[in-house]
Amino acid sequence: MKGKLGWLGEKLCLGFGLLFSGVVLVQTFLTACRGGGFFLFFAAGALGMGAMVLLGLRFLKPAKAYPLALCSLRFLIALGVILVFGAQPVQDFKTMYDAACQMARGSGDYLQNEYFYNWAYQTGFTAYEALVIRLFGEGLLPLQLLNALWMAGTGCLVYGIARRFLPETGAMTASLLYALYPAPYFLAAVLTNQHIAVFFYYLGFWLLVRRERLSPLRGVLAGVCLSLGNVMRPLGAVIVLALLCWAAVRMLRWKGPGVLREGGLLLAAAVAYYASGELFNWLVRATGLNPEGLANHLPLWKFVLGFNLESGGAWNQADYDAYYLLPREEAPTAMRAAVGERLSSLGFSGFLELFWKKSQTMWGSLEYLYWGFGHLDGSVQVLGGLTLSQCLNALNYFDRGVFFLAFFLAAAALLLWLRRGAGEGLRLPVMLSFLLCGYYAVHLLIEVQSRYRYFLMPVVFLLAGAGAQQLLRCWQGRSSRRAGQKNTAPGREGRHFLEKTGKGP
Length: 505
Hints:
2 strands; disordered C terminus; two-stranded antiparallel sheet
């Protein structure tokens, strides 16, 4: 009975992930079709990078210097964007940077800003910026250069995780595809907490899967890294819940002391995550950085926005004026009433319409370029009479093509696992599938922005690497079978494929 429940949980996760990927593919393609002539850049992104994936899988050779080359590539691209375009902090990014400057000077004036009461959890990232400012002085460039380092490190971690379940060439190809994915570089010069948070989250994932067997020490270190990521950007609860759900399904699906031990160590990692989170919260209070610690005093605000059908779950001025600007004593009650009213008025068709709109904004839309390039004059001619806006739009559609390719390959992997079963040897891809489903499901409920997909994209590219590897194996297997039919017997590669799929004469 337990085994059947685990099997059902695994199938539901893979099925939901496949459904989600299918919706994203449709919405992304429709967005590209509405781009007119820019559709050609979308096609160039999908087909060009698809050709690169095929060539990489066929001809890349393992090289000890590859991690260094990958890290250098990510860093140099990010550095180029920073030096050529730069960025000026706006909105929340400016609020945190100004507060960091005050914090570095020893001033507590930033605490007078209601922002650091409502969103006290932003104190963690602000303190990180303040530390950099204390070391290198006020200015954007040191923080931007660190962004480039965090991005380079994340690229290496994607490669390290991919090596745990893909052949070396497959891991190299998947990580190279992610390294050439344009979207993260649009934020390279932006003082967002996403770069450092994503690095620590994926460092935690890498520690969990670095060896075949999880050790207690690596489990604890992984929990601490996930907690550090959460201090920078609070996504940890969703991530840890997805990991625990995966562990529960795995223990139901498979038997043996190894599985139980792995589940116990993952639970230990979760305990380390929550314990270190409480420690960081206490330190923020004890040091006087923020008497509210790392609290979130308006947890329902994201749901108020998320259930607004008219805005499609995105930020809007009307909700900001009606609820966010209320006195702190009144805001929680008013937001609770708003969420309840919107839930009761939506109905089934309303929910479907809302979820479609939110998925379109979150996953199917073009990247929002304002954060990184809004300070520039888009009418300036930069290339063969083309304006900067035209060039950036072309690159944005190229990015959509790479994004489409990644989700297509990820969907292929999910479909094959759903049909054939993931199997005991593919526990890491199933874990990634749980992260995919959990993150997507949460953003059906809360506020959405295109930049919020930043965290999940390494997971998508890891799954895409698996999909590309499986599609190539299927193609090679069919080619081998056709050759075998001509020779009356399958060759070595053909026999291997028949054995793996269980399909044969």
